[in-house]
């Protein structure tokens, strides 16, 4: 927390007190004791909700990090705030939070929250998550609606473009400086951890590319090699698996054989060929199958 930058101030809700430090604040109440909140997205979300005077009330513990996708969370009397890179910080509470927890929190099929809870005039409340949404009704409780089941199972190639053509996923997270869809990122981290456990470091070379980025890349290849050759090494915008956020190019940390055929002979290349399927991946362009893959 660093040095204090203010005196202690009391008279808060429920007889509470707080003091500011270089790295954040410490709030105390008779029911919760003294708990820190560090400067950052989680504390900013708590502040936006009115600090201890809002629905979340006082913090119950310090911020905890190390969640999936590099996320963090903090518990409060009235719920929790979860944050993940590329997603932001959102609060959960009540029955919606309870059901989310019963499904495995951020490690479950719903992933991280991507909005705060909103309530309608009929008393129902809804919150959106990466993998779907939950709606609470006073009479029926919580109903879970998952995203379209097939959205992670898309055929994308020269004959099957994305729809819409400029599609961009909404649940991208940062993985080694590149972006992948959330469920894809979880699988990749498991793959990379398994490789590391075998003494094989793997790095991310390329992940999500937008329609505009893919168009620029493809056009640069056309300018260099002509369109016929460009079509053998790059996808046109709207026809790239990278635009789906479900494809990743991997490499060796030292850059050896980066995006070259010889990568298949490196430890990382051999590990991918033999073990990638265990984590839901395929090697998309195996040698000798150009007639199939294009």
Could you list some keywords that capture this structure?
Muramoyl-pentapeptide Carboxypeptidase, domain 2; elongated; 2 domains; alpha+beta; 294 residues; four-stranded antiparallel β-sheet; 16 strands
Q: Can you give a write-up of this model?
A:
The protein is an alpha+beta fold and 294 residues long. It has two domains: 139 residues, no CATH class; 142 residues, Muramoyl-pentapeptide Carboxypeptidase, domain 2. It is 23% helix and 24% strand. The protein contains seven helices and 16 strands. The strands form five sheets. A four-stranded antiparallel β-sheet has the order 1-2-3-4, with no helix packed on it. Strands 5-6-7-8 form a four-stranded antiparallel β-sheet. Strands 9-10-11-12 form a four-stranded antiparallel β-sheet, with helices on one face. The radius of gyration is 23 Å and the shape is elongated. The protein starts with 8 loop residues before the first strand and ends with a helix. The relative contact order is 0.08. The mean pLDDT is 92.
